[in-house]
């Protein structure tokens, strides 16, 4: 496992939620993975709340262009928006649900939630 940041938590947790190592599965079964992931989330949330760049980075919805602006680094962001897997354009979840395509790159995609 690779270490990331001051917590010594694994770097791969921030890269994807689709791949797990055998050690991750052992840790999940043994009850040690959840506290480790909670520490990662707490560290990222702490950075977000303290970092002026992350806190002030906001984008318009690629579909409607209307508020509320999308803050991709906010801890609750994953519940309020969808990112195009091809060009990373951001959309309100409701806008995505009505269009199922990205107006920036014209790709159609399926939400993997």
List keywords for this structure.
4 strands; 6 helices; two-stranded antiparallel sheet; mainly alpha; disordered N terminus; 113 residues; flat
Radius of gyration: 16 Å
Residue stretches low in confidence (pLDDT < 50, at least 5 long) are 1-8
Overall geometry comes to flat
- Assembly type: single chain
Largest sheet: 2 strands, antiparallel
Give the termini separation: 26 Å
Order of helices and strands: EEHHHHHEEH
Look at the helices and sheets and give the structural class: mainly alpha
- What is the β-strand count? 4
Enumerate how many helices there are, as a single number.
6
Main sheet strand line-up: 1-2
Helix content: 40-55%
Look at the structure and give the mean pLDDT: 77
Beta-strand residue fraction: 5-15%
Description of the molecule:
A hairpin with a 6-residue loop joins strand 3 (81-83) and strand 4 (90-92). The two termini are 26 Å apart. The protein is 42% helix and 9% strand. The protein is built from 6 helices and 4 strands, in the order ββαααααββα. With 113 residues, the protein is mostly helical. The chain has helices at residues 12-15, 22-30, 33-50, 52-56, 77-80, 93-99, and strands at 3-4, 9-10, 81-83, 90-92. The longest helix has 18 residues, at 33-50. A two-stranded antiparallel sheet has the order 1-2. Strands 3-4 form a two-stranded antiparallel ribbon.
Summarize, please:
By secondary structure, the protein is mainly α. It contains six helices and four strands.
